[in-house]
From TrEMBL:
<keyword id="KW-0472">Membrane</keyword>
<keyword id="KW-0813">Transport</keyword>
<feature type="transmembrane region" description="Helical">
    <location>
        <begin position="56"/>
        <end position="77"/>
    </location>
</feature>
<keyword id="KW-0479">Metal-binding</keyword>
<dbReference type="Pfam" id="PF03188">
    <property type="entry name" value="Cytochrom_B561"/>
</dbReference>
<keyword id="KW-0968">Cytoplasmic vesicle</keyword>
<feature type="transmembrane region" description="Helical">
    <location>
        <begin position="170"/>
        <end position="190"/>
    </location>
</feature>
<keyword id="KW-0349">Heme</keyword>
<keyword id="KW-0408">Iron</keyword>
<feature type="transmembrane region" description="Helical">
    <location>
        <begin position="97"/>
        <end position="119"/>
    </location>
</feature>
<feature type="domain" description="Cytochrome b561">
    <location>
        <begin position="1"/>
        <end position="191"/>
    </location>
</feature>
<dbReference type="InterPro" id="IPR043205">
    <property type="entry name" value="CYB561/CYBRD1-like"/>
</dbReference>
<keyword id="KW-1278">Translocase</keyword>
<dbReference type="GO" id="GO:0016491">
    <property type="term" value="F:oxidoreductase activity"/>
</dbReference>
<dbReference type="InterPro" id="IPR006593">
    <property type="entry name" value="Cyt_b561/ferric_Rdtase_TM"/>
</dbReference>
<protein>
    <recommendedName>
        <fullName>Transmembrane ascorbate-dependent reductase CYB561</fullName>
    </recommendedName>
</protein>
<comment type="function">
    <text>Transmembrane reductase that uses ascorbate as an electron donor in the cytoplasm and transfers electrons across membranes to reduce monodehydro-L-ascorbate radical in the lumen of secretory vesicles. It is therefore involved the regeneration and homeostasis within secretory vesicles of ascorbate which in turn provides reducing equivalents needed to support the activity of intravesicular enzymes.</text>
</comment>
Amino acid sequence: MTGAWLGLYRGGIAWESDLQFNAHPLCMVIGLIFLQGNALLVYRVFRNEAKRTTKVLHGLLHIFALVIALVGLVAVFDYHRKKGYADLYSLHSWCGILVFVLYFVQWLVGFSFFLFPGASFSLRSRYRPQHIFFGATIFLLSVGTALLGLKEALLFNLGGKYSAFEPEGVLANVLGLLLACFGGAVLYILTRADWKRPSQAEEQALSMDLKTLTEGDSPGSQ
């Protein structure tokens, strides 16, 4: 629907033209909302797959989301530079930069703890709740920032015609509702305890070994 809005009412997308700006909303919606949301759901959708497989898929989706979002940021800054427009003056732009920086830091820390082989099992276990919390928080901030940007674009492009129920405004409003519903659906799935990934045999073995070691006994003493 984002592509339909940009194609029908904003002229489409082209990098070397005035249409370069349109790459920004499309890339941000694809990267920081669609791909990020699906990355968060990997452990719910593939509940019974091998942990390593789901972990790699989770990380890859976040990499794709980060790269596509970076393209969207480059598009808007490059467009502003060519047109001589000011940068980072609106609430949307402040929230956008905050979200991107938080997302990048979250990915770096997540890679260090869960994909890089040097992190210990106990360290991963202690950090996992924070990783899940910040992941969901950044996703919801991404949705909110997209809604701010959508409203800003409509007011800038339509002006007073926005209140006259212009077709573009109606379509964009529906898009905003769908983004909010998608965010709510992802959060609902993430918070359902019965949809969480069950502990696999190797994870249970590691937990038992860790518990035994912290109690002062060796895993093979029983």
